[in-house]
Amino acid sequence: MSGTQTGFMTGPVVTDRDRAVQAAVAQGLVGPAEPVAGLLDVAGIRRSAAELRSAFAEFTTPGTPVLHAFAVKAASLVPVLRLLVDEGLGCEVASPGELALARAAGVPAARTVLDSPAKTPAELREALALGIAVNADNPEELARIDGLVASAPTGAPLGLRVNPQIGGGSIGAMSTATETSKFGVGLRDAGARDWVVRAYLDRPWLTRLHAHVGSQGMPLPLMAEGVRALFDLAEEINAKAARPQIDTLDIGGGLPVNFASDVAAPTYREYAELLSTAVPGLFSGRYGLVTEFGRSLLAKHGTIVARVEYAKSAGGRPIAVTHAGAQVATRTVFAPDAWPIRVAAYDAQGLPKTGEPVAQDVAGPCCFAGDLVAENRALPPLESGDHAALLDTGAYYLSTHFAYNSLPRPGVYGYVADPSGAGRFATVRTPQTLQELAAESGAAHADGMRALK
Ligand SMILES: *Cc1c(COP(=O)(O)O)cnc(C)c1O
């Protein structure tokens, strides 16, 4: 995470994150009125984007077109997308909503890739008209695209998603390359590989090949094996076509993230280096490259800060009742073994707490018993008015709200840490107001059901 660490030899280490939490409390971004907020480290996001670019640039033949398309679902926030465009990235979108966000962020069509698993005819037509790259997921979708291509010429680069079926990682719900995964054409199914080859030979305009073999919980060598399978298939198709019909390989994202400490691992460089040995031809310049990383670009750069409303105890165990639970940390609450996150304790001023750690539960505000972001976790005792910070929550957490209990979407702020402790913030998303929440929940139609006789 945040690089700069200062502090005197005897004092505690103060990180950029600590400064941001303190400044957010001092400036009232989180407080009694707004008891939970998300913070994003702007310099950290820029740094990760630059690391991604330089890792691939190091191994790629100069002049090879490389597009790093950020998976929008990992942080569906327009200012984040705009920042990444600034850093030379594009966007991978998987729904009309995500495409709308990318367009609102000014992502050029040439830097946009559409991968949704259930694209409607209207969605496909729009993408083709805009010239956005589309990866078809299955034979029926390819047939729809046939019709569209026949009726109106398009400059959109078109590809097919395949599933190398190399197996899953440690989290079933995150494993996209299992035998029965819902994504893409399963290459090892009977007759599938021949069908894919034929599909390309019959369609000279099909020029890309896509696989996303992730994600969290996947070992890197298995990911590289998936990319190897993708590359081998492209070579086979191009040999049979007797021309370089496939000109671009989209290798997806899926780099896992270390949620156990501040160390960012594995690195993009480690992955690129592994790919360069496992699939040397990938970087030869014969194929343009597209990547679709999400979690690994943002996770380490986000922090959710929540006020502790009450401290209590039950069955002898201390419980901190905070304002961050399933609505912002949905995966952690519902699948705590697969998605453990670190929690840091801050006091009422937003300064790191230093008390002797005691095992305690850190609970959220939702009305169900399992709404815990950490169970039996050793932390300095949290008291009413303190703050609990959920670390590494920059991807799939603060941007992926779950509307349980009609809890409003919290505000999200980008920050740059200032050594003076002042901290400068930019609004990424304003906190949802209760009026907005009521409107979203049908307030304009309050009489609708009653009027039905
Ligand atoms: C979710 C997704 C990604 C991003 O995965 P991460 O694990 O966040 O890197 C990339 N491509 C596709 C098709 C996806 O569905």
Key phrases:
single chain, 453 residues, alpha/beta, Lyase, Ornithine Decarboxylase, Chain A, domain 1, TIM Barrel, nine-stranded mixed beta sheet, 20 strands, globular, disordered N terminus, binds pyridoxal-5'-phosphate
Number of strands: 20
Overall 3D form: globular
Number of domains: 2
Query: Main sheet, how many strands, which sense, barrel?
Result: 9 strands, mixed
- pLDDT averaged over residues: 95
Radius of gyration: 24 Å
* Estimated structural class: alpha/beta
Summarize the structure.
By secondary structure, the protein is α/β, with parallel strands linked by helices. The longest helix is centred in the middle third of the chain and has 22 residues. The site of pyridoxal-5'-phosphate has 18 residues, from helix 10.
Would you give an account of this structure?
The chain is an alpha/beta fold and 453 residues long. Helix content is 29%, strand content 22%. The chain is built from 13 helices and 20 strands. Strands 3, 13, 14, 15, 16, 17, 18, 19 and 20 form a 9-stranded mixed beta sheet that branches. An 8-stranded parallel beta barrel has the order 4-5-6-7-8-10-11-12, surrounded by 6 helices. α9 links the parallel β11 and β12. The longest helix is centred in the middle third of the chain and has 22 residues. The termini are far apart. The N terminus is likely disordered. The structure holds pyridoxal-5'-phosphate.
Write the layout of secondary structure elements.
Blueprint: E1 5-6, E2 14-15, H1 16-26, E3 36-41, H2 42-59, E4 66-71, H3 78-86, E5 90-93, H4 96-104, E6 112-114, H5 121-130, E7 133-136, H6 139-151, E8 158-163, E9 185-186, H7 192-201, E10 206-210, H8 220-241, E11 248-250, H9 268-278, E12 288-291, H10 295-298, E13 302-314, E14 317-322, H11 330-334, E15 343-346, E16 358-363, E17 372-379, E18 387-391, E19 411-416, E20 424-429, H12 434-440, H13 448-451
Parallel strand pairs: 3-19, 4-5, 4-12, 5-6, 6-7, 7-8, 8-9, 8-10, 10-11, 11-12, 14-16
Antiparallel strand pairs: 1-2, 3-13, 13-14, 13-18, 15-18, 16-17, 19-20
The protein binds pyridoxal-5'-phosphate (PLP).
Residues 71, 73-74, 92, 94, 115, 212, 214-215, 252-255, 292-296 line the site of pyridoxal-5'-phosphate.
